[in-house]
Amino acid sequence: MKQLEERIQHEVARLRKARRERSLRSSVIHGARMWLNGQEALHFASNDYLGLSFDPRVREAAQVATMRYGGGATGSRLISGNHPEVVMLEAELASWHGAEASLVFSSGYAANVGVISALAQPEDVIFSDELNHASIIDGCRMTRSKVVIYRHADVDHLCWLLRKTRCQGQRFVVTDAVFSMDGDIAPIGDLLDVARRFEAVTVLDDAHGVGVLGTRGAGTLEALGIPVADDIVVIGTLSKALAAQGGYVIGRRILIDYLVNRSRSFIFSTGLAPSCAGAARKARKIAEHEAWRRERALSLSDALRVGIRELGYLVLDGSTTIVPVIVGDEQHAIAMSDFFLKKGVYVPAIRPPSVPEGRCRLRLCVTAAHEMTDIERVLEIFEEWKETAYNDFFVTSLAKGGERG
Questions:
Q1: How many other C-beta atoms lie within 10 A of the C-beta of residue 99?
Q2: Worst-scoring range by mean pLDDT, 121-125, 278-282, 314-318?
Q3: What are phi and psi of 187, to 5 degrees?
């Protein structure tokens, strides 16, 4: 125990010295406002992209489900936790995406880990985008498959790796559909063409596309006009635009039956609480029929992206609600985030390990709860920061941020 304690103390001290120690802060979110440790602020850090977490219809649906089926699922879904609310949710998700069936997990992380680790076998090869989410990376590690990393969104590199890498089993191409830190969309059409050339199955994590993209909000595939197919496995989440909690996978009925029997994060986890399933059902319906929500969030995101770029900052290209402003240096990113908070706006600094060294950033998430006046306030603060710190510090930050590894 003494050795373990010393190891823990050493690691905490190392993180503290590098200013990378994280801590939890109490936060209450209501639309575009938040109370962080009691301090009120306008916030741009929420994944509640459609502004539905406080919608009275969503909250009422959660309350009704709780009163009808109880506060918790009471057990794993294979034992006692498969209540009617989650069964109905799965049917609605499958219909929404145009798939035969779906399976709901307790979280998006559990869905990614559970699906990938259940599908890939030791003789298989997984080709994974270098900027994939940690849950995808962990899912790949849990398999005993060979994992090959291709350069971010580089279809030519993927094709070259598929050609040169020997595989005795099944090939998988695994990627985020919308990348959470860069806000860009994977070149899915080209990825599918290459994957199909090598008879690879494509696994897409569409956590940040569901609800936000597509004519009915069904996600990135719908937005691109790509139908669900046998060689595509789509994983989504209930905890972002759908304002609840949980994750899910859609696909053929035989795939879902297989995962029920072989996905460990599904089998050995307590089922989704009735309130979460009820809230997600209502939010999904609203997302499908109230297109103005995603149109507003995307329009405000575009305005913010253009405005920050016009001020001279390095903003990554994108067409989603995620707007990353590359700073480069970690301490500069923290200083900028602190400056924003003092001005009454919460914009988090994103640092390693969430992003690579030298690619620290401010990551702004725009939602349908924001107003144009909120966008204007953020641009004012970026202008103030530029005037306050326009020296070698500011110029160096932009130069470092411009380098892409």
A1: 21
A2: 314-318
A3: -75, 70
